[in-house]
Amino acid sequence: MSKQTLFGALLVSSLCGGAALAQTTVIDVISPARCTPTAGRLTRCSIPTQTLTGTDFMTAVPMRTVVQRSLSGNCSTQYPLEVTLTPTGGSATRYTFLSSPSVVLRGLDRQLLTSIELKDSSAWTPTASFVDTCRISLNIDWNQVDVDSAPQAQTLIQDLQADVTTKTLQRDNLEALLDFSTAYNFMGELSNRFYAELTTETMMDLRAKSMDTSNVLLKVAITCEQPAGTPPELLLTDADRELLNQLFFNLGTLGGPGDYTKPDGSLKTVRDFLGDEAKVVIDKLAGRSTPAVRAQYQAQYQAAALAVVAAQQKLDLARVQLAPWLTP
Fold it and tell me: Which stretch is the leader sequence (predicted)?
């Protein structure tokens, strides 16, 4: 027995906590039980239609099921006996078992096979006659790893690793989107509170007074002459004038009351204050941060996170299943 065959048998028996066992089904096709013994001959043979069942188990790699003919005694005959093997959901395979020692069956996308219909598809079975020493059976070796070389095994591992990488990127992107949605709402609330503080009645009154007094402040700051009789402690120094200049220019950053109110006198919102171009961007971002959208992001993220776990588990299982080809 080859290393791959031995390992495959041990692997299947260990998968799913021992629930899956290496399995071979033996089907008797030519024997005294299937034919009528007459004068040292086996005649009028019959192969009944039957459904064969294989064990289901987890697999991360493609599978194939091999049907091998087992023959003993003198089974010489001129008739091409044949059975048809049809996996559930798959295509039929005709197997002329006297002339072919084996045939390989694969399910759709080389998935695990758990059911095969075996049917006699030769019109010559009742006519054929054999020496009574003839015994023919079909051995169905279920679900072997469908790999023949190390490069094939390595390609499977690379594909599964790429799938993990892709799913991880999708999960991380959804996590970033969810974080952005949460952060946008936080920043929106923060900016609204900050804007509310900037537009209180006191702040609006300060803006109005700063506009009314700005010219006076500028005049004082740049005038060199000072009224006669000013006490020495009240005389403006050059440092005082520098501070007054700074205050004058800084008052400009407050803006005027009209910057924060609409033509009807009502207070602008943050969106109104930032302008029409900003409104388009704000509305787009806000649309991606509603409770319903966040719930959708959360559900998508959770599904993506589970997909990463499943992909990694599949990769880990594949490494175990393909170890005979990957290990020198």
Answer: 1-22
CB 28 within 8 A of CB 137: yes
Number of domains in the chain: 2
In angstroms, the CA 262 to CA 234 distance is 43
Same domain, yes or no, for 45 and 90?
yes
Positive/negative CA dihedral, 143, 146, 147, 148 = positive
Domain identity same for 162 and 297: yes
pLDDT in tens, the chain (328 residues): 344 444 444 444 444 333 334 689 999 999 999 999 999 999 999 999 999 999 999 999 999 999 999 999 999 999 999 999 999 988 999 999 999 999 999 998 899 999 999 999 999 999 999 999 999 999 999 999 999 999 999 999 999 999 999 999 999 999 988 877 777 666 666 666 766 666 667 666 766 666 665 565 556 556 666 666 656 655 556 676 666 566 555 555 556 666 667 777 777 676 666 666 766 666 666 666 778 878 888 999 999 999 999 999 999 999 999 999 998 7
Domain's final residue, options 146, 177, 198: 146
* Structural domain boundaries, residue 51: 3-146
User: Quick one: 205 and 277 in the same domain?
Assistant: yes
* Residue 326 maps to a domain: no
The DSSP 8-state label assigned to residue 254 in this structure reads: G
**Nearest partner of 248 among 213, 292, 289, judged by Cα:** 213
Residue 199 within a domain: yes
Indicate whether 40 and 104 sit together in one domain.
yes
- The string of DSSP letters for 104-169 reads EE--GGGPPP-EEEEEE--TTTTT--EETT-EEEEEEEEEEE---SHHHHHHHHHHHHHHHHHHHH
Looking at 146, 181, 210, which one is the last position of a domain?
A: 146
Describe the chain by its helix, strand, coil percentages, rounded to 5. Answer: 50, 20, 30
Residue 56's SS3 state is coil
Give yes or no: residues 121 and 33 share one domain: yes
The pTM assigned to this predicted structure is 0.65
